[in-house]
## 1
Amino acid sequence: MARRKFATLKSFLNYIGVEGDRTIFTWVSASEGDRWAQVIKGATEKIKALGPAKKMVKTIG
Amino acid sequence: MAHKNSQKRVKPEDRKKKVIGVVARGCTTRSLIIHLQERQYERDDVCIIGVPCDGYVDGKGLKVKIGGADIVEGTVDGGQLKMKTSDGDKTVALKDVLAECCLTCRFNNPIISDVMIGSPAPAMNPDAEYNDVKEFEAKSIEERWAYFIKEMEKCIRCNACRQACPSCYCPTCFVEQSQPQWVGIGEDKTDTQVFQFMRLYHMVGRCVDCGSCVSVCPMGVDLRKFLKKIDKDCFEMFSNRAGSSMEDMPPLGKYDEHHDKQDFIYNP
C-alpha cells in the first residue's frame, strides 16, 4: 500500500537526517487538471525553499 | 520409457534444499511467521521445535570484556558465564554480555511451534526497547545525519548483513540487479549509504530484531539504531510487530482507512 510505504519512508528519511519534506505524496486523478497544476506548483515551491539536495547525492568525477 | 524419465525436467525451485525442521527461539519463530505470510513455504512443510530463550551472548562484546583473550571452553552457571581462556579462567555476569537486542526482547518464547522444549523463559525488559531510538530522535537533524554517515562510512559492502538476515531472501537482490542498476557497486560513500538505506527500509514490518546483522557485521556498524526505528514506526503507525502472530498480516500489504495517519499526504 503506497500510503503506508510513504508514511514510513518519510519518517525514516527524517530519522537518518535527510529532509523528509522532499518526499511529497498525494493523490491526483487524471481528470483533475487544475489540482495537478496546483500540486506541482506547491511541490516546486517547497523544494525551492529547501534548496538543492546535498545528502545522498552521488557526485561523479 | 526409461529415457523419457531421465529427461524429466526439475524445476529450479525444486532443486533447492528444503528446510524440513528447525530449532527455533522466539525471534526465529517470528521469522518463520514472516516467511509463511510471504508464502515461501507451507506450514506443513516445516517442523518447528520451539525453545525458550534467555538471550544470546554478544560475541564481540564478550571478547572486549575479557580483554581479547581466546575462549577455549565456557559454561553458564546461574547468571554467570565461566570460561577457560588463553588468558586464564574468567567469569562474567551473563546479563553484561548479552546482545543488545536480547536485553529488551519481547518475544523470547516461541510464538508458533510443533514441539516445545523446556519451560517458558522469564520476560526480558521490553519496556526499554525504544529508549535508544527516542534518544536519537531527540537529536537535531544535522546530528542525526552526521551519525548516519559516520556509521555508513564503516561499511565495506561485504553484504554479510544481507546474507545473515532471515528476511533477506530475494533470489536476486537489488544490489546485484543491473537492469536497472539501483545502486552502484564499489566504495562510493553515497552508494554505501543508499545500499544501507534501501536494505534497512526493506525491513518495514519484517525486521524481527534477531540481531543477526549486527552480530555478523565485521565493521561494527550500528544497524540496530536504524532498524529499531522502523520497528517503532510500524508499531506506532500500524500497531504491528513483525511476525508477532500468524493472523496479523504484513503491515505494508494492507491499510486502515480510519486509523492510518494522514498528515504526510500533501494537500496544496
Note: The mean pLDDT of chain A is 89.
## 2
Amino acid sequence: MVSNRPRITRVLDVIEESSTVRSLLFKDKLCSKAKPGQFIMVWIPGVDEIPMSISIMRDDQAGLTVRKVGEASTALFNMKVGSMIGIRGPYGNSFNPIIGKVMIVGAGTGLAPLMPLLEILTNKSASIDMIVGGKTMEEFIFMDKIKEILSKTESKIVVTTEDGSYGIKGLVTDAILPILKKKRFDMIYTCGPELMMKKVFEMAQEFNLPVQASLERVMKCGIGICGSCCIGKYNVCKDGPVFDSSKLKEVKDEFGLFRRDHSGKRVIF
Amino acid sequence: MQEPDLSVEIAGFKMKNPLMLASGILGISIASLRKVFEAGAGAVITKSIGYKARVGYDNPTLVEVHGGYLNAIGLSNPGVKEFYDELSNSKIDDLPLVVSLFGAKPSEFKEMVSILDELNIRAYELNLSCPHVKGFGIEVGQDPKAIREVVKSTKEETKKPLFVKLSPNVSDIVKIAKVAENSGADALTIMNTVRAMSIDIETFRPILANKIGGLSGPVIKPIAVRCVYEVSRSVRIPIIGCGGITSWQDAIEFFLAGARAVQIGTAIAYEGLNVFEKIKKGIRDYLIMKEKESVRDIVGLSHGF
C-alpha cells in the first residue's frame, strides 16, 4: 500500500486562535487517531508542504494550528472552509503520558502538540502544573481550552509574558524554578522555542527530573530518509519529534546550539 | 565450510562488505553517516556536494508511488567550503567515507576536489546523473564531451578512486559508460534514479514542487539490473550496482549481473537501517548454500549464459 502520499481533504472549519494564529479542522481518520505529539506533512497545493503538529483530535477529524510567519504558513493561515489540503502522516514518535505529577511547559504554537497530551493527562495524572509563556498577551492561544481541561483535575496554571501584559512578567523559565524547588515532579513535558526547551532541560537536570521535549528541524521527506532534520545521529521526523532526557543528552552538542537550514548548513540559535 | 568472504575492493578502496549507502540518503551530517556505517554498511556516501550552497526545491520533495518513491530534493547541500569545515572537525578516520560531488563545469569539480583532497576521504563519486536539476547532473551525464572533461580534470586533481554515477535516462548507457571509462573513471555506479512524475487527481497538480523527479525503489530494479548487465559486458572497470535493492536476493541479482558492490538507499524507507545486516546475512547464507568462498566469485556469473 502506498501511504506516504498526500491524502486530499477539505478544511471543515477555521478557528481564530489569535490575530496571527488559526486552527484548521479537517476530516482524516488516521490523524484523528494519532498519538499525542505526532505530526503531519501538510501540502498546500502550489505553495509548499510543511510539518505541522496535530493539535486537535475528535471523532474522525483532526486539526492543526498555524501561526502566519513565512509564505507557506501564511498560505495555510489564509485557507478557507472548503479549501483543499493534502495530508501525509501522522509521523514520528509521541509523548509518553505517565501517571503521576507532571509539569507542562509550553510557549506560542509550541502548545499545539501539547494539547492532545493535556487531554490524555487529565484522565491519567495525579496533578498537572501548566506553565505557559509568551512575549505578550496578544500571542496567547488555547487559554480558555487549557483552563477548561485543567478544571477537571488537580492542577495549577502559571502564565508569563515578557512585557508583563498578562500573568507574571518575565520568561517562562523564570517561573519554573520556584515551582521546582517546592514540588517534586515525575515528568516535565515541553514544546516551544528551542532555547526555552534547552533551559527547561537544564533545570530539570539540576533537579534530576525526566523531560520529554518536542523538537523542530527542517523537514522534507518526513519518513527518515532524506536526513534534512538530523540532530546528532537522529532524525527528528522518525526518531522524534519527542526526545526524552537520554536522547537529549546524546544530542547535547546540537540541541539549543545549532540547527541546519534547507541547504544543510549549520545555523547557530 | 568456512565463513564466506564478503570483502570487496574497488580501485584500491577496500570495503569489509559490498553494501554501500547510496548518495542522497541520510548523508547530510557525519553523525548520520556514522550511524549507517555502524548499522553494517561497508561504505557510506554523502549527499552530493556542490561548489556553492543550494537550498534545493520547495516541498513536496518526495512522494510515494507503487513500488517506490519519487523525489526532487534539488541537490540541496551546504557548499564545499562549509562541508569541508564540517568534515575537518569530525572524526572520520575510521569511516569508509565516499564523497559525492556534482557541478556545472569541470573547473567546479576540480576546485572541490582540491579543497577536500587532504581529508581522509576514501573515494569520490561524481554525480553526473541527477535527473531533475537543470544544468547539473544529467545534462552533463548525457554529453560525452562533458563527461570526458569532468572526469579528466577531476582525475588530474586527485589520486583517490573516482566513481562515476551514470543515469539510465540516456539512449545508450553502454556508450556513456565507455566514455567515462576511457576518460579515467575507476569505477561506475549504475544507476541513478529514473525521470518520472506523479499527478494528484483531486487538485490536477503534479505533486512534486519541481513537477518532475527521480524514481527509486523496487520498481526500477529490473532497469538497473539490465544496465549493470549491459555495461559490465563492455567495460573493464568495476561496477557498483544501484537501484531498488531491498533484499539479499536483489543484491545477489546485481552481483550476478556484474556488479562488484551495491548501493542501498530507498530500502531504508521500507526496512530501516536493519536492512544492511539483513542483506549481509542473506548474502552470506547464499554463498554457503552455493559453496562459494567469496562474494567476488559470483560477480558476473549470469554472463555465461
Note: The first helix of chain B runs from residue 30 to 38.
## 3
Amino acid sequence: MSMPSEKHLDYDELLKAVVDASDLPDGLREHLDHCPQCQEQLQRTTQRLESIGRIAARLAPEPSRSVRVHGRRQARRPLGGGRMKSFMAMAAVAMLVVLVSVWSRHFFAPSGSDQVGQLIADVNRLVENPLPAGYSSLAAVADPLPTADPAADPTAFIVPEVGPPGAGDIPENERITG
Amino acid sequence: MTQPPSSPGIGRDADARWLTELVRSARQGDDLAFNRLIDLHHEAIYKMIFYRIKDAMDAEDLSQEVFLQACRNIGRLRQAANFRAWLFRIAVNRVKDYRRRKRWSFIRGLFRTEDLSGQDGRLAVQAPEGPERVRRQQFWQEVDRLLEPLSPAEQEAFRLRFFDQLSIKEIGQVLDKPENTVKTHLYRALRKVKASPFLDRLAEAAP
C-alpha cells in the first residue's frame, strides 16, 4: 500500500473523483480520505452538479395521467432452445427455395439469339394469322362450311337419293349381279 | 404478490429483493405487479423524457409507450434486478425515435406554405402563467446551453448521471457501453460543463 500523497487534488483529479473516486491512484485516494480540504472541494463540486438535477426535477411538470395495463397475456417466452432451432430451420429452407428459384431462372433462361429467333417466328405467325389458334375455329377460317352446288339438283341436297341397301357401299366391279 | 417494504421507493430506498420479486411476478403475467412497477417508475421515466424533449404532452405519450413496450417485452428481460436500467434504455430509444420523427416533420414543415411561427414545441412546457413560467423556460434554455458543447454521448451520460440519478453501472446498461467508456464520457462532459458560465447560473438558481 502506498503512502498518502501530500499534494492536494488538482482540477482534473477532482473531476475524476466526481465521476468515481475509486478510480484515483492509491496515493491520491488515501489523501482524499484524510484531507478535509479536498473532501470539501469534492463535495461542493458534486453537490453543485446534483443541484441542477434537483432543480430540473422540481421544475419539470408532473405526469397528469396514470398508465395502467389490464388483461395482459402471459409473458412471451424468448426464442430459445427448440423454438430457436425450428425458426432457424424454417429460415434456412426459405432461403434455399429462394436460391433455387433464382438459380433455375438464370440457368434455364433462353440465350439472346434464341430469343430473337423466337420473336421473329412469333411475328411471322401473327402476320399469317393474327388470331390465336383457339379463335380460328370459332371464326371458321380454317374449316369453311360446304357451299351448295347450283348445278346440282336442289332436292338431292334436301332429300338424298336412296339406292338399294348397301349398293352405295360396294364398288361397281365387286357387285354380284344376277 | 409480495408485500412492499416499509419505505417503498425507487433505487436506493427500495428493497431490491422486493422489486425483483415484483418484476418476476410481472414476467409471469401478474398485472397487479406490473402496475405497481409502473407506479414506482412512472414519474422518473416521465421526467427523464421531459428533460430531453421539453414537451409535457409528448412526454406523457412517450412514457405511456415505454411502459406498453416494457409490458409486451418483459419476458425478454434476462435479470429482474436490471429492470430499472432496462426501462430507461427503452425510454432512451423512444426519445431517439421521437427526435427522428420530429426532424422529418420539421423537414416536411419547410415545404408547407402555412405560417407555423410561434409553435415551438421544444418549450411547450405546461408551466404556470407569469414569472414562474418565464423562470422555467429560462432554466431549460440554460440547461440546453450548458450541454451544447457536449457530444451526444457525453450529454446522455451527463443527463443520466446528474438528472436521472443513475449509477455508472446502470448508465452502462442503459447505453450498452462498458463502465469505463461511461466514465470517460462523464469525465469529458464534466470538463466542458465546469468550464461553462451557465453552471454557476444554474447552480445559483437552487433554493
Note: The two ends of chain B are 41 Å apart (CA to CA).
